[in-house]
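Lay summary

Proteins are chains of building blocks that fold into shapes. Our project writes down both the chain and a compact code for its shape. Here are two examples, one after the other.
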Amino acid sequence: MRRAVFLLLMLFFSAFPATVRSEETPPRGALSFILENDLFYNADRHYTNGVRILWVPEQQRPLPKWIEKFAEVFPWFPEQGQIRQGYGLGQSMFTPRDITVSQPAPGERPYAGWLYATIGLGVETGRRLDQLGLTLGVVGPASLAGPTQKFVHSVVGADRPRGWGGQLHNEPGLVITFQRNWRSLARVTLLGSAVDVTPNVGIALGNVFTHGKVGITLRYGRKLPRDYGPPLIQSGLPGAGDFSPKGNFGWYLFAGVEGRAVARNIFLDGNSFRDSDSVKKRPLVGDLQFGAVLDWPAIRLSYTHVLRTREFKTQTSKDNFGSVNVTVKF
């Protein structure tokens, strides 16, 4: 798995040589690649893999008129600020605890895949980022999660998953998401480096996810960049893929918590309009996140460890997974 991640990162860098871009040539935007996987911690269960690509065009480029008009009339956006747009494409997969049997044991979460595209619009004031996202996709065999996992496991020599024949049925998915982040709501200096606190609140509505959330992130480092923390797949919107470093090199460590009140999670509740496997979800779920970020004028690297509380009643232990993010401006 580590070799596969290394090869993906090398391909990413070779395709986008952002570090040699002329300083006189403004970037066209920021492209992010996010990989989340539990194999970083010798596990292969539940939320087992997620891949997402984000594209955020350069903020100084002219926006389509309809985007400007929508940002002006949307009631929750601030009246003043920089309008952002972003686009994402991703795939996530979920499995029971034991993937080597064709019929999961009773009480195990079902196999499920999620293939989706997201368009996001936001307004950033320098201290606050409001984002609105629309995600459309498909759950079920059409997500291609089963063939993807089988292929990757054959390449890296992992166990062959045998239960994808019983996954959730095909179902179109729609999620509307709104999130607000406040940057540096509190800021102090400790041992010559900056410490700031960035809270956030958000809501998701749709047949795939419906939840409300609240979180807070603490950052510690030199030359803290003007960002809102590294993007994650489930809670992130495309606008989080952008960053504005201070100087030629910066770094920071971060830690945060997020709590969600969950009304709907199709990957636990099962299909909306057809009988399918399901488990009884827990209404409250929490994440502990911590990691590190390195950034240069054109590249940001980050790693996040996520410790997630149990998501359903018959789950026997908490989940761990890692998230690698590479963002390149070119």
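And here is the second example, written the same way.
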Amino acid sequence: MVAIAGFTREQIFAAVQQMYGEVATAPLKQFHFPTGRSACLFTGYPETLLEGIPATALESFAGVGCPFRAGIIRPGDRVLDIGAGSGTDTLIAARLAGPQGRVLALDLTPQMLGKLRCNIALAGASNIEVIAGNAEAIPLLDASVDVVTSNGVLNLVPDKGRAFAEIWRVLRPGGRVQIADIVVSRPVGDKARKDPKLWAECVVGAMIEEDYVDLLRSAGFGEVEILRNYDYFSASSSSETRKIAGALGAKAAELTMHKPVVASSGTARHGWMRWLRPVHLARRAARHGHLGLMTSLASIAACYGVLAVVSALAFMGLAAAVDTLLWTAVIAALTALAPLALAWNVGVHRNMAPALVGAAGAVLVLYAVLARYDWRIEAIGFGVLLGAALWDRHLFRRAIGC
């Protein structure tokens, strides 16, 4: 049994089953996420796709986007719908695949599976097979489907790497994928992750968008493309859910990709190279609220770190030439940049005070370095700047629930 942030995978699945069991059996209930036919229209489904879908399927729709925007299902395709729910996407896929095609409808929730079977019968669809299971262990043979579709489900899965590996496994070479899912711009805090209910509401199980795409590429998928991003949680009836989603930068994304006919041996290496790029590292630092702290530490290191190295070399009898003008310029540039980096987190914790305090510290440092050198003023300035950065980091972590 694998623990996820203080509770087990089984507890997450139980919370998901409870939530979506209610969506199946009490579709008129108000949930913290949009449901029903109105949710279909809000998430981007054209009326033409919804024609002929039984009302009992539409009433329990709980998707987060319109994966069919990818337009990848062809007549005769064998399609896997992961998280089929009450059957809206399954029935649309069955129509697109045609009588020569087949749709395998996979779902975890017993109530949804029962409703799905009834809706298939109501629609008179003969090319659909219902399967009980979850995305982490898909009960299908290797290379057995042409297309995988999923809508608002993978963010609910604890082990997304395992789910993506399963999708890769069941796809035939050249197979295609269309996904609508929830992604975030900032990391989810441990406090929020420890609430299984928030997992079931599509908020805290989501990954940072760039990490999500990187994980898909690492699984071997090619031509990963984001077709659309939009604010899904603006339609939530819960102010608390909207607040949490806003703090995390949560949004819905529609993606498409394919399984190459020949797997690339350089996929993993390329993924590591992307992670080590300075721009990528800076973006990750900003998403995790570290940018202000890192810039402040960099300015201190530029000043005292260089001085420590030169002193150590001199102690060993080695001479090191330092361009004083260049050294001063680097210190000044990093110090001036630090308050701007601190202001980056204001959009999350809504408090300008750390950036203003950091700016005061930066002014002291710049005065000591550029106008009238005084090591005491310089040290006080760096201390104020570092204190502001740690304060900013604390407010960021509190805002996102760490």
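What can we say about the second shape? The chain has two domains: 3-276, 283-399.
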